[in-house]
């Protein structure tokens, strides 16, 4: 799952080297902390949070196949 999230995020931002994704997981859930450059945070979140919501929806669909809950947080 982390690889898919990384591909999506890196295709959105200008500074691919500034992207870092931290994964914390247990038996039933997975949490991702996505850190991007300050100038790229707007691209990742999108207007009115629509891009962030779409990214979370994709990750929830993938996690559903594995019967896990997922949480994605964005930081700059």
Offer a quick outline of the entry:
With 76 residues, the protein is α+β, with helices and mostly antiparallel strands.
What do you see in this structure?
With 76 residues, the protein is an alpha+beta fold. It has a single domain (2-75), classed as GMP Synthetase, Chain A, domain 3 (2-Layer Sandwich). It has three helices and three strands; from the N terminus they run H-E-E-H-H-E. The chain has a three-stranded mixed beta sheet. Strand 1 (20-25) and strand 2 (29-35) form a beta hairpin. 13% of the residues are buried.
Key words describing this protein structure:
alpha+beta; 3 helices; 3-stranded mixed β-sheet; about 80 residues; GMP Synthetase, Chain A, domain 3; 3 strands
Question: How many beta-strand elements?
Answer: 3
- What's the architecture, going by CATH? 2-Layer Sandwich
Instruction: Determine and state the CATH class.
Output: Alpha Beta
Shape: globular
Series of secondary-structure elements, N-terminal to C-terminal:
HEEHHE
Uncertain spans:
none
What Rg is obtained from the alpha carbons, in whole angstroms? 12 Å
Name the average pLDDT: 94
Main sheet properties? 3 strands, mixed
* Number of H/I helices: 3
> In percent terms, what proportion of residues is strand?
25-35%
In helices, the fraction of residues equals 40-55%
């Amino acid at each position: 799952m982390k690889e898919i999230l990384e591909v999506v995020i890196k295709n959105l931002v200008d500074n691919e080297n500034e992207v870092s994704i931290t994964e914390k997981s247990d038996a039933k859930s997975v949490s991702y902390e996505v850190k991007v450059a300050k100038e790229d945070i707007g691209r990742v979140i999108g207007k009115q949070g629509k891009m962030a919501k779409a990214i979370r929806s994709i990750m929830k669909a993938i996690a559903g196949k594995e019967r896990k809950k997922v949480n994605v947080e964005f930081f700059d």
